[in-house]
Amino acid sequence: MACFGFRRHGVQPDRSSRTSPCTALFSLLFIPVFSKGMHVAQPAVVLASSRGVASFVCEYGSSGNAAEVRVTVLRQAGSQMTEVCATTYTVEDDLAFLDDSTCTGTSSGNKVNLTIQGLRAMDTGLYICKVELMYPPPYYVGMGNGTQIYVIAKEKKSSYYRGLCENAPNRARM
């Protein structure tokens, strides 16, 4: 009962140990008021094209009608998450990743079609779609389970055919 200010007689209070748990418990009471969870779905696996372009749909479910939405693409490497691109858009306007040539996208209802460009083999990894419904309140946030994007390294042209052409005059004499 130390959290509520009750104290036993003759016992010296240890303020450092009692403040932290009480503050943590108190703050947990208000988290659901300020943000609500939301389901975000995205495909498990996508194969990038030979030009390094990968597209996938990020679909979110909410009970409210959002006027302003923020979409963020995160890349997870181990325990680190890095932002690849992000945009905030109003539902009436087109989705646009300003000042970012890496990502493009379109939105329709509760679906966002995302395209990541310029991918190389070393960019293979888990890409997570994060959606935030900004306005009107309440604030909703959700993250997908991630899309594993595989980027195949471009093959070097085989020297086999070049060798055949270079040796063609020699083969003709045989």
UniProtKB/TrEMBL annotation:
Membrane topology designation: Single-pass type I membrane protein
Listed Gene3D superfamilies: Immunoglobulins
Domain Immunoglobulin: 43-152
Keyword GTP-binding among UniProt keywords: no
Family matches, as SUPFAM superfamilies: Immunoglobulin (SSF48726)
Chief location bin: membrane
Entry GO terms, CC: external side of plasma membrane
Pfam families reported in the protein's UniProt record: V-set (PF07686)
Coiled coil: none
Gene Ontology terms describing biological process: adaptive immune response; B cell receptor signaling pathway; negative regulation of regulatory T cell differentiation; regulation of T cell proliferation; T cell receptor signaling pathway
Annotated localization: Cell membrane
Source taxon at top rank: Eukaryota
This protein's record includes keyword Transmembrane: yes
Database matches in InterPro entries: CTLA4 (IPR008096), CTLA4/CD28 (IPR040216), Ig-like_dom_sf (IPR036179), Ig-like_fold (IPR013783), Ig_sub (IPR003599), Ig_V-set (IPR013106)
Keywords, sorted A to Z: Adaptive immunity, Cell membrane, Disulfide bond, Glycoprotein, Immunity, Immunoglobulin domain, Membrane, Phosphoprotein, Signal, Transmembrane, Transmembrane helix
Record function comment: Inhibitory receptor acting as a major negative regulator of T-cell responses. The affinity of CTLA4 for its natural B7 family ligands, CD80 and CD86, is considerably stronger than the affinity of their cognate stimulatory coreceptor CD28.
PANTHER family membership: CYTOTOXIC T-LYMPHOCYTE PROTEIN, CYTOTOXIC T-LYMPHOCYTE PROTEIN 4
Protein name (record): Cytotoxic T-lymphocyte protein 4
Name of the encoding gene: CTLA4
